[in-house]
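Table S2 (text version). Query chain:
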Amino acid sequence: MNHFKQATLFYKEHFKKILLVSLAVVFPIQFIHFVLVNTIDNVYSAWLLPPFFSTLMTGFFALIAASMVQLPFIKVVVDYEEEGAVNVRAALGTTAYYLFCIYVMGILYATGVVIGSLLFLIPGVLVFVFLYAFPYAAVMEDRKWFKGIKRAISFGKKHFFVLLAWLFIFLCIEFMIQFIALFGLIQITTLAWPAMLLHMLLNMMFVPWFTFIISYYYLDWIGGLEEREDWYINNYSIR
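Corresponding structure-token output:
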């Protein structure tokens, strides 16, 4: 079964629990992100700075948020493959355990992408793809910090074009979500919060599905759960 179909069937089968995890993790992180972005837009407008800088900062915070919101859904896939069940409590616990680490690594990741994008764009794309999987390395293999970065680069090299294609699809869908939220509701109301709320709700539905696809690619790359457990035995005690 291909990973797209596998992720889609998994999402449909466990939709209610996945939605609960989204409400607990994705919604609050997105809310904080939107508050930050709104504040940045207001500051840049007040200082009459070029919109380009505001766009860069928006992208910077979006990359950090995207890195964090994937954590519980990666854990959901691991638990299901190990135990045949979705454990919401375990997903939330794993998110809390890795959140600070991924937040700091996300800052470094976002900084690299932004700086690389200023250098003729291509370096930014390379950083974006090669380091994208560091949350997966953390949750699936407990490889954090420098080890997680090295692991993400290895995965990125192996699946560069696959990751690039899926990330491009992700960005296109995200653009459509934003278009629907901002320009669809403007026909109904001029208030900002309904558009923001719709944007967050649509993202809550989409982020888990995308994370499941990449999770199955990563799980396949490390050789499945048996290889993962062997690595744990050789390096740590199994959690």
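Notes on Table S2: The chain has one domain: 3-230. Confidence is low (pLDDT under 50) at residues 229-233.
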